[in-house]
Design goal:
Blueprint (H helix, E strand, L loop, with lengths): L6 E4 L2 H9 L13 E4 H7 L7 H13 L4 E4 L2 H11 L7 H15 L1 H4 L5 E5 L16 E5 H10 L6 H9 L19 E2 L13
């Protein structure tokens, strides 16, 4: 099956968690381009839907996109973690996510950037800005959740980025944990060397 041109790659659970906290998972669809996720983070985000509202709601949202709107990239790391869960010997930790990201960045990302199409990588972990690529593709555009919201406001897709960021960092629902965004107020927005644009209709 051919890979879609122009994609939104979400290799980090942070943006999903933040958008869920704000009650705005729908904004992942606002750019109207296919979404790519790493299997290990899907499993992390949806691991216990019976006991956690976040897992249940994120799972329902992502499962509803399966197919044309959402591509799940399988990794060896994710497969092994899933097997460990099934066998009752899983022990979570940041290392699993980091290893899955490293595997995808070293192998899977090439499936989307090699044809020269613009690829938007949405991240929240500050470490992404210092990721060392063997060859960083010229058409890879990296931006944080806050920067995406600022861009959406400029494009008229949302009324106020500040309102959504406030809902992330100070949610009205006491059952939701406030998100801590280290890149405020403007967010991190690293333009692709090749000049690709992430705005709708500009790719």
């Amino acid at each position: 099956m051919s890979k879609p041109r122009r994609v939104l790659v979400v290799p980090d659970a942070g943006p999903i968690n933040s958008l869920w906290t704000a009650g705005r998972l729908d904004l992942l669809l606002a750019l109207d381009i296919p979404i790519v996720m790493i299997d290990a983070f899907y499993d992390e985000l949806t691991g216990d839907p019976a006991n956690y509202a976040k897992d249940r709601e994120v799972k329902a949202f992502l499962d509803g996109l399966a197919g044309a709107r959402l591509t799940m990239e399988e990794t060896f790391v994710g497969q092994q973690a899933r097997l460990a869960r099934q066998q009752g010997r899983f022990r979570g930790g940041k290392g699993i996510g980091d290893a899955a990201i490293a595997e995808f960045m070293g192998d899977g990302l090439g499936n989307y950037v090699d044809d020269g199409s613009p690829v938007l990588l949405l991240f929240e972990d500050a470490d992404f800005r210092s990721v060392r690529f063997v060859r960083k593709p010229d058409n890879l555009h990296m931006l944080s959740t806050a920067a995406m919201l600022r861009g959406m406001e400029r494009m008229g897709l949302i009324d106020s980025a500040d309102a959504i960021i406030a809902a992330m960092t100070n949610p009205a629902d006491p059952a939701k944990r406030p998100r801590r965004l280290s890149d405020l107020p403007g967010g991190h927005d690293d333009e692709a060397v090749g000049g690709s644009r992430w705005q709708p209709g500009r790719g």
